[in-house]
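Record type: monomer structure entry
Structure origin: computed from sequence
Chain ID: A
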Amino acid sequence: FLVFEKLISWMIAAAAVGYRRPIISYGGNWAYTLPAFQAVGGFSAIETSLSGDDDLLLQQISRAGLPVQFCLLPDGWTRMPFPGSFRHFLRQRRRHFSAGKRYRRSVQAGYLGFHSANLLLWAGIFLGPAGWVFLGLKLLGDWLLLRRGKAIFHEQFPAYRFPLFNFLFMVYNTLIGPLGHVGRIRW
């Protein structure tokens, strides 16, 4: 599941850069120039954020009109180890989601719309054949996109697990995502 989740995030990151609307990055996989860092005032505007400094700095650089690119060469990527336990994963992801509080409202609305639509399409299984058709079309579209992403990012997961991973992705974002916006977040 973690490969599936990472692949979706990388695809969103690459597509957003391609559409000149970068929103997310990965601290271990991105670089910026000192002039770009200085042009946006460094971390001063985001120094109180516990997590997401890479995303927030990327968004500042983009808003300043500075060029942003996504490296599609495997030699330019850093593979980060996955969390060692489920508890560590949940804590890390909750912290990651907490950065969303500082995203532009339009980005927040986009994420809310995307994940709400995903939830509604999965809820369609309770509506009978019409709901199944819409969910089936969603899964087909997702599979085609992920197949392309797997080739671009050299990632693999068993195809037979795709429906389960897709369902878990919806549950994960529905339950864990909002937790990043409430309560106290710890490192």
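Annotation 1: The longest helix spans residues 129-153.
Annotation 2: The chain has one domain: 2-179.
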